[in-house]
Amino acid sequence: MKKYFYYLCMGLAGMLFLNSCEEDDDIRVSEVPKVVMNTFDTMFPNVDRAEWEKNRGYYVAEFWYVNAVVEAWFDSKGTWRMTETDLGMSLANLPEVVQTAFNGGQYATWRVDDIDKYERPNETFYLIEVEKNGQRDRDLFFAPDGSVLKDEVDRDGKEVTPDTQF
User: Fold this and answer.
1) Fewer beta carbons under 10 A from the terminal one: N or C of the chain?
2) Could you state, in chain order, the average pLDDT of each consecutive group of 10 residues for the chain (166 residues)?
3) Nearest partner of 82 among 101, 56, 102, judged by Cα
4) Residue spans of alpha helices (H) in 67-158
5) b/e 28-37 (16+ beta carbons within 10 angstroms → b)
6) CB neighbours of 14 closer than 8 A, spacing ≥ 6?
């Protein structure tokens, strides 16, 4: 019985170890290149604390800024590539023209699950995730002028990155 218990504990410990390694993208601030930190500090001078990770070759800082959770993406040369701002679930957090476009569209009666604003060097867009019972969730990408850039079935956890194309 003791032998069985020992193997059970070792198996559980091994699973916990492997699980923690699988999701360990986090890095220490000391591992972020100085050129990346300089760009970050210039863009977000009042941020006291950020959590850093390495994601698809980019350095990503997640932090609280102007009452929102923000992720800023930088390449290894310190060039800012993208900022994602979590706008919550309220359409009121969107520009009026985007609200109007959404409310006049075919998904106006669907429940809004999440809204994010994405800023890149040459573009800004909004992602509104919607859901409705009996339907597949949708991801709706809007330009700041309210035009729909893309309407697709939910990306099932696929994140938007600086390299995501429309």
Assistant:
1) N
2) 43 41 72 97 94 97 95 98 98 98 97 97 97 96 97 86 90
3) 56
4) 96-103
5) eeeebeeebb
6) none
